[in-house]
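hey so i finally got around to running both of the ones u sent me last week. sorry it took forever, my laptop kept dying halfway thru and i had to restart like 3 times lol. anyway pasting them below in the order u listed, first the sequence line then the structure token line for each. didnt double check formatting much so if smth looks off just lmk and ill redo it

first one:
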Amino acid sequence: CLAITSGMYEVALVLGVEKMTDLSSDSITEALMTAASEEERAAGLSFVGLYALLAQKYCHDFKVSTEVLSQVAIKNHFHASLNAKAHFPFEISRSAVLQSPMVADPLHLLDCSPISDGAAAVVLASEKFAKKLRRKHIFITGSAQATDTVSLSQRASLTSLLATKQAKQTAFNMAAVECSDVDFLEVHDCFTIAELLALEDLGFYPQGESWTAMSNGEVRLGGKKPVNLSGGLKACGHPVGATGVKQIVEVFNQLKQRAGQRQTRQARVGLTHNVGGSGGSSVVHILQV
């Protein structure tokens, strides 16, 4: 985006690619943990362990049952069942989530995104160049990245990701939008707790209350603010290097009314939110017709 807005280039092809399934799960876990702090790696933590700590703190502080996390997985699998390109294109039940193996308390296997292969691509162009094509274009009106400490032990809060809050505010200011203007979202749900944190840090729900939206249908297809219509990382898949671009593709298809069975009724402003590691970095984009 910056290279184009600066005038350095007029058109750019952006690719996101990841091939993960050639390695064992242990090897992949070890490789991914290079994005964590040295002290966390030395302690034997993996990312599911780090997010389990966030989930424990969230449920403790806000007096929420850990079972509410299953509602995130159920909702995202429903959306994925309408997505032919999803890694897991099928629905799951509450009992299936709660009876799946415990990976890191309170996160069960079905609270976790899968190891996926995937690729996605978008073409970015300057407004001047795009006008030559005489097509209906989608505009990136806000784009921001923010960072925080990599180690959880150095953060002021374990129930909020500061990088997400900062990236959101910058992107919203750039796009001149508020939460009420956003029609749907694709957020980083590597584990079910991550979606709850994202919805609160992005300003759509007060702290400790986003879980209520999972049971009342607000964030489901047909609800007032659908979230992760692709199925999210949880069910569409999480090929790490492709995930951020894949989110852009999903929002683009929704804004162009090309999403098929999972098309949301109101699609004029969409948001993507991606996270690095356990919140050491965060990126937010606003796309509009």
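and the second one:
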Amino acid sequence: MLREKRRDSVEEKRRPRILVTEPIDPAGIAGFEEYADVTLGFDADRERLLKLVADHDALVVRTKYQIDREFIDHGPRLKVIAMNGIGLNHIDVDYAKEKGIAVLNVPDASNDSVAELTIGLMLGLARRITPAFASVRNGEWIKGPFVGTELKDKTLGIIALGKIGSRVAHIAQAIGMKVIAFDPFVTPEAAARMNVTLVSLDGLIEQADVISIHAPLTKDTYHLLGAEQLAKMKKGSFIVNAGRGGIVDEDAVYEALTSGHLGGFACDVMETEPPGKNRLFDLPNVLVTPHIGGSTQEAQRRIGLRLAAQIKEIIA
């Protein structure tokens, strides 16, 4: 859908203009319209968006397009680029700042949503929910191949004990899991208040029955879990990545799964998105969702409303 929504105005002052490249919650759009003219470029391709952005003051994006130097240079009026979510890996933040453009995201609005999906992915692996349902869809009604494992009394190792990681810890403890964590930015005292024990990365890898990743992708976290680290994990253990693609070496994961050493792998993020055909998808002990961690009605409404308020402070 490509359309413009403008208010007639007798004022000589030009109203700010906001270009939204992908669908966001209607509450956000309504918030923008209170102080700006809004262009919805949902069906526009990149080339069309490059033309549209030229006379807009704000750009609201999700993850479909790379907001690189070319895109930024096509927006000489831009004062703000806003991400409808958390991740900024697809935006050239440094170049935007060089051009005097503010870059916004909404890092806390989807914490609960991501944490709940993480637990869902763990349960999906532990109880073999996806292959069991696939069997039923094929007309079968058999139990033998789908014997799972309980999460109660298992050790969960969380990489990055931030707001999402700590929420995952809280839910996991309610299930009855013991929680350990690796996070160089969290003090032992802070972790202890969450009933979490801080350990080294190697210690976490060796002790955890399930590893849950919630770290950002940086040069230090790229392929943080590779072949060497996977070999140290308990046989039959699981990895869940709801952080960022690229933190786990997907080729190493494939080898560990097919050898039988790794029990299962679930993720909401891939190193390349969209991933296209990936041999991991052919394995029965793999569960992948298309980066939907923040895709709940509640989170999307919060994100839209917060972006509307933040952008207003800059352009209105």
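quick thing i noticed on the 2nd:
The domain at 2-107+296-315 is CATH 3.40.50.720 (Rossmann fold).
anyway thats it, ttyl
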